[in-house]
Batch of 2 targets.
Target 1
Amino acid sequence: MARIVNTQLLQKIKRHGAGGTLDVSACFNCGNCVAVCPLAEDSAGFPRRMIRMAQVGMEQELLASEDLWRCYACGECTETCPRQADPAAFMAATRSYAIARYDFTGLAGLANRSAAGNLAVFAVFSAIFGVLLAAKQQAVAPSAPLFNFLPGEWIHHIGVALFVVVGLSAVFGMLSMFLRFRAQCGRKAVALRLSALPGALVQALTDALMHTRFQRCADGERTPAKPAEPLLKRPWAVHAAVMGGFLAMLAATTLDYLLKPIGSPVAPWYPMRLLGAIGGLVCLYGLAVMLGRRWKASEVPWKKSSFADWFFPLLLAATVLTGLAAEVADYAPLGAFGHIVFFAHVVLAMDLVALLPLTKFAHVLYRTLALTLFAWSHAPAAETAAEAEA
Ligand code: SF4
Ligand code: SF4
């Protein structure tokens, strides 16, 4: 099959980089970045190989590669690149480009390319959810319970519709990535055995939840001369706090819905309420360290973050903060202010879900899929009957 070359590929990826400063044309393929990358040992060498693909316009191969998502953005490669080609930023920009290309609506491209596009998509979603919620808003006294002001059933109905739409969008995006990957396996004659899929899935989920690869990456396994950071400040621990806190809040919300009537009052020590509050605080800790580190890094020219890098953690932090404030307002009524905070929290939480397949948040989907595909395509070949007997 003829290979399709996209001569504009590098330019397109560049638009997804921070401030448009990304330039990997200086790369002369020395391989330093591969040597220092803590995660490149079991493949043919990323990030150098990915840069080469972009330089020669191999878009399909780049978008089919699970290596793109096996990088955890530690920045080791950038620090040792003799040409200041910034391979870590290249990997991040290419992931953002891939999210845009996997999405069929075109919204991910708009949201990831520029701050204006990102804010426009956010504003449109916020307006839609705001109008939908306002349609059923009740006129109540400032001291009335929060769910008298916004009916729980109505929030639930919008939430279910939202999850269906976002779920379909996520499935299409992941399917787009998978079909590219499968076509690539066909070209390389790599067999994908269905029987090896459950094991690959378990391995990928364990990796993702336990941060096993991230620990190797962020603890600088191949650069041991670096002083280790305190445990709770290590990038993988901070990421685990954000993810674990988020999952705890998600579990609390889901169980709350399943185990009791929507919006019915509970004591502060009700287990689901406690789980949500603790999850929120843990998540906020992780986000504060993450954003502080990003702020500090932005003083270094080649460590600048794109708007999309800032937007997702800030949106998550705003959602958690308004959620915690709404919980306080549930026990110690804050008057009309409590109602406004609750309204804002519900809109932000819906924005967060709606933007899942379109923004940096999508790494949750694509990284997990990439880890699965990697484990699947590298599963040991099945024993033949003759080998088994021997
Ligand atoms: S990105 Fe830098 S370190 Fe990596 S191959 Fe290119 S020049 Fe070498
Ligand atoms: S950022 Fe870290 S994990 Fe990613 S390619 Fe560079 S060294 Fe490897």
Target 2
Amino acid sequence: MSERFEHIVIGGGISGLGLAYYAARRGVPTLVLEAQGRVGGCLHSPTFPGCGDFWVEAGGHTGFNSYGHLLDILGDLGMMPRLTPKAKVSYALWRGGQRHRILSALHPLELLLSLPRLFSARARKASLSVRDYYGPGLGAKNYRDLFGPAFSAVICQPADEYPADLLFRRKPRRKEVLRAFTLPGGLGEIPLALARQPGVEVRTGQDLVGVQWDGKDFRLLLADGGELRAGTLSLATPPDVAARLLGPQALAAHPPAVPALTQEGLAAIAGIGMSEVETLVACVPAMALGHLPPTAGLIAVDDAFNAMVARDYLADPAYRGFSFHFRPGALDAAGQMDRACAALGIEPHQVAGQFPVHNRLPALRVGHGDRVARLDAALAGTRLAITGNWFQGVSIEDCLTRSQEECDRLFPTPTPDKVVAP
Ligand SMILES: Cc1cc2nc3c(=O)[nH]c(=O)nc-3n(C[C@H](O)[C@H](O)[C@H](O)COP(=O)(O)OP(=O)(O)OC[C@H]3O[C@@H](n4cnc5c(N)ncnc54)[C@H](O)[C@@H]3O)c2cc1C
């Protein structure tokens, strides 16, 4: 007989761990199953062999004082004193194989003449893509030369088709908190801390390949042939994985009156695309980079990478760190290293540590809100939750907002004798 758990979460990124934490705090012990050998997903602050505890963010790198759910969690975990300010450094533009000042790409007159269109299109923003909203509103040349590449750098994927209303979402700020922050060990500290909380058990190396319903429990099928059972199930994987796990075989197995996802709900997920990012994380002795002033990174206009994010916001006496986010398939590993070194003005042999990271982000499109509404209608009343970075948006705060909403739906009433005190 397979092991049975009250609540299982599939996916150990911030969405899954956040939901597990919220559930555990309500007295619902939760098992998190993660395919990789580590938790965190896109929150990953790796170190390099032989480079001490110097880390570089391979994915998410900045928390903001508008991240209310995140700040509440950090407060509960006693981590607020660890919030670390980020030194003010500026991005540069990378065009034609050279660094340029950001403002060198601005066409001020075009901007002035275009801005009224931005304001007049505000009411239609939810129905427009980033290109269709900001192109006319900032000017075609400004969009091509500066803002388009900058927006692509922000969301780490081509921004043109992305929904304009999901690019920047205004959230209330907590003024007493640092506006932008990291942590002494990088943001990767957050998933690690969540995974240690009472009521949360994490198993890594658990690659889920299917979900079925047996009339009473969810049956979770593992790639190694193993099986687990859960009374309540939460999916916190990218949308293509969620669609695969809940694929036709899962639906076919659902008797009508069970917490099944309807065809309609499944179709809503299945149509969401993914953007693949080939990230090269590198650590370079500071001495080798004397020629390179401290930088936030590069916004690339015409190269194989969309953006480079530097760790110069938290200076280290010995090393400097960089993450280059390449378009998939644009260059092989050696080509990526050559291009990164060219952008840094060094030779490959000067790099002290490096490795590739495969990041995946949802490629949201206009009309995404309708998909989410259809999915939510299908989930209502079931013991199945779905969270991730493909609901409100991709930020850490968007993930946690969705996770808390799904936890509220699954477990509306805390179990009084089991609630875990902060
Ligand atoms: C380069 C980059 C920079 C970013 N910068 C910022 C930033 O500065 N600030 C910010 O707020 N956000 C940032 N983001 C966005 C944010 O980091 C992510 O959207 C967020 O961390 C995603 O969390 P998640 O848990 O939803 O998904 P993920 O982190 O993708 O986690 C999903 C997890 O599910 C696991 N999984 C997948 N399939 C299976 C399976 N079959 N079985 C079991 N487990 C499975 C995966 O291994 C993964 O660990 C950035 C993202 C990237 C890539």
